[in-house]
Amino acid sequence: MTMVCHRPEGLEQLEAQTNFTKRELQVLYRGFKNECPSGVVNEDTFKQIYAQFFPHGDASTYAHYLFNAFDTTQTGSVKFEDFVTALSILLRGTVHEKLRWTFNLYDINKDGYINKEEMMDIVKAIYDMMGKYTYPVLKEDTPRQHVDVFFQKMDKNKDGIVTLDEFLESCQEDDNIMRSLQLFQNVM
């Protein structure tokens, strides 16, 4: 059986498209190839890798949503270029780029807005990922309460959906969200 390997575009091109130096890209590529020798990662492998970070919970559903956000071409696999482009946004992108990427993650069906069902699916996936041993212990209706608070804050015109513009505006008005976006600014 032959394995088809993917080689990334030139490092110079990736350096121009991302906020990483050539050296950083080399380090990232070595790590990526170590986990994914073929040069691409499918969803099952992505889930296995991601699950290692959440040993007390079930990260599979959240990893599925995350994988779909990384797989921008919807091919069912993530190449190094896809991975490093998303990582560049999340770690070193502008506030606007990070928020747009997060909106895309939450917009599960990619219709251009977030509805309550999508947000409920995301919140439940996060709770499942964190596991049953979270503190304080969560009540059964906690995910619904979080979704209600999210919509009270984000759904500016109260039409039951959150558009990208509403999401951007609401997040930029929230000091906690803005601080959390800065957390990974100096990683790497």
TrEMBL record:
Signal peptide: none
Main localisation: membrane
InterPro entries: EF-hand-dom_pair (IPR011992), EF_Hand_1_Ca_BS (IPR018247), EF_hand_dom (IPR002048), Recoverin (IPR028846)
GO biological process entries: regulation of potassium ion transmembrane transport
Keywords: Calcium, Cell membrane, Ion channel, Ion transport, Membrane, Metal-binding, Potassium, Potassium channel, Potassium transport, Repeat, Transport, Voltage-gated channel
Keyword Magnesium attributed: no
GO molecular function: calcium ion binding; potassium channel activity; potassium channel regulator activity; transmembrane transporter binding
This protein's GO CC annotations: voltage-gated potassium channel complex
Family according to the record: Belongs to the recoverin family.
Protein name (Swiss-Prot/TrEMBL): KCNIP1 isoform 6
